[in-house]
Amino acid sequence: xxxxxxxxxxxxxxxxxxxxxxxxxxxxxxxxxxxxxxxxxxxxxxxxxxxxxxxxxxxxxxxxxxxxxxxxxxxxxxxxxxxxxxxxxxxxxxxxxxxxxxxxxxxxxxxxxxxxxxxxxxxxxxxxxxxxxxxxxxxxxxxxxxxxxxxxxxxxxxxxxxxxxxxxxxxxxxxxxxxxxxxxxxxxxxxxxxxxxxxxxxxxxxxxxxxxxxxxxxxxxxxxxxxxxxxxxxxxxxxxxxxxxxxxxxxxxxxxxxxxxxxxxxxxxxxxxxxxxxxxxxxxxxxxxxxxxxxxxxxxxxxxxxxxxxx
Length: 311
Ligand code: NAP
Ligand code: GLV
Description:
Rossmann fold; single chain; elongated; binds glyoxylic acid; alpha/beta; 10 helices; 12 strands
């Protein structure tokens, strides 16, 4: 049996991934999507943001391993068979990277570094009064792999951190709450809200006018999860009015972010090109390969997605 590798990788990404996968999966036949002949005996697919319908017509497919942590796009692709177990990427290296990005965004906001960057563009020398980390409330929405790491890292740097999840959670150094009813209070208290929720029917467009209005006046939003969590027009309106102070956005409804999108030039927006926690082939290929071996040994692979809840 063979393994299909279906991705949207560019040439540089293939150059990094292919040798890493070959080294991690010795003895396995790896087939790159687009080069596969009809009827090839494929029982495993390794996928990274594959083109829609890439998994169509694979009758022997028995296991799908995502090389990405978020599987929202796969779950919307009708060609991904619902009876085939789907595992997502869980890599401690990604959790660390995400925690670093979240911490950077929080520190930059707290210390006024985004303001100083725009002052530099205007050749404006102006100092702002100091504020201590323990005077800043940070809310982290989502306390899974990424949210937990981010919340703990931010808390260790002296910020007052609250975390919100679907089910009750215990996270050292973090005040936690769960369920829809708790969200308003979490948002209202926070100077900075970091979104690390999965994109599901329950969380899509969560940051629309209603939720943004529940945030503290002058607060900032850091979206490192998925672009479709945010209603762009509503966020831009809140930033334009000064109701929200700043947004750090790593993810967008359309990626790459179109060149004429208002986010690029908005004075209160910092844009990153979806790099908060990139999958690193050096570690992720080994993790994926290990899960393939678990599957081949007839055991249950790790980090299976619950399709009913959508993550
Ligand atoms: P995860 O481990 O699945 O954690 C999801 C967390 O969200 C859990 O704590 C879950 O609560 C909570 N949650 C889910 N639905 C909820 C709801 N309706 N209300 C409240 N809480 C809810 O996810 P992850 O691996 O940490 O990934 C987090 C996000 O980061 C995803 O959107 C992913 O796509 C994104 N991501 C972005 C990048 C990047 O580079 N920008 C990289 C990787 C991942 P329970 O624990 O109670 O179930
Ligand atoms: C990146 O966004 C991922 O889901 O791994």
